Amino acid sequence: xxxxxxxxxxxxxxxxxxxxxxxxxxxxxxxxxxxxxxxxxxxxxxxxxxxxxxxxxxxxxxxxxxxxxxxxxxxxxxxxxxxxxxxxxxxxxxxxxxxxxxxxxxxxxxxxxxxxxxxxxxxxxxxxxxxxxxxxxxxxxxxxxxxxxxxxxxxxxxxxxxxxxxxxxxxxxxxxxxxxxxxxxxxxxxxxxxxxxxxxxxxxxxxxxxxxxxxxxxxxxxxxxxxxxxxxxxxxxxxxxxxxxxxxxxxxxxxxxxxxxxxxxxxxxxxxxxx
Length: 275
Prior knowledge:
- By secondary structure, the chain is an alpha/beta fold.
- It has one domain: Rossmann fold (3-Layer(aba) Sandwich), CATH 3.40.50.
- It has helices at about 5-10, 35-40, 40-45, 50-55, 55-60, 65-80, 85-95, 110-115, 185-200, 220-235, 260-270; strands at about 15-20, 100-105, 120-125, 125-135, 140, 170-175, 210-215, 235-240, 255.
- The strands form 2 sheets. It has a 6-stranded parallel beta sheet with strand order 3-2-1-7-8-9, sandwiched between helices. A 3-stranded antiparallel beta sheet has the order 5-4-6.
- Helix 7 (about 85-95) packs parallel to helix 11 (about 260-270).
- The radius of gyration is 19 Å and the shape is globular.
- It starts with a helix and ends in a 7-residue tail after the last helix.
- It comes from Nitratiruptor tergarcus DSM 16512.
- Keywords: Metal-binding, NAD, Transferase, Zinc.
- Its EC number is 2.3.1.286.
């Protein structure tokens, strides 16, 4: 069996799929279950508020100060955190190929921040940098100067709660949450259209495709399932699964039990790519 590096070097097209583990090397939490979330946000742990409860439209209805304390802290964290150098390495890699696409469940916008083409990214769970109204479904990009002041004792927002730029009702991030029937999917719809168009080009082709999956776990397995389906449907596609704990995959998968940054430079990159 060929090595991951050989597969990547010989490929014509790269598909990058990424879960929360991709951001760990940048210093971002990965929320591995409630224990992982409570480690990052111990005040929620003290109150026994699960990720499913806080990442829920009802939180903005019944506890908007706490909901925006949680998401406001994450908004500032993602905005102020620099993507690790592995993002730059992958960007230089895809520039050497015929085409590429990125599919991610992360809402941090770090692929765009690292320089990837926004038109070649499908954010399946939405994005924190865009807001939507909880009532009228308006959607907008907040001021780049926006930052949140969160009470460290309560995790509640101390600054004014963001409100709709149209009707004045409480805003929320444009992120697909649990039990979410009001998510504004207009951006996702356009992203998915471009992704589907990209994929259709390769279903019946001989193009060599390397699928690089980073940090996608089994708790929310959507990214893993998408990568496995790509490998199954495209004859010359190989799934390279990079995950320090859950690297195994179906037949034909190359499994690398490492973190994203380590694997990029030890197992994926080859010498004639410069970062």
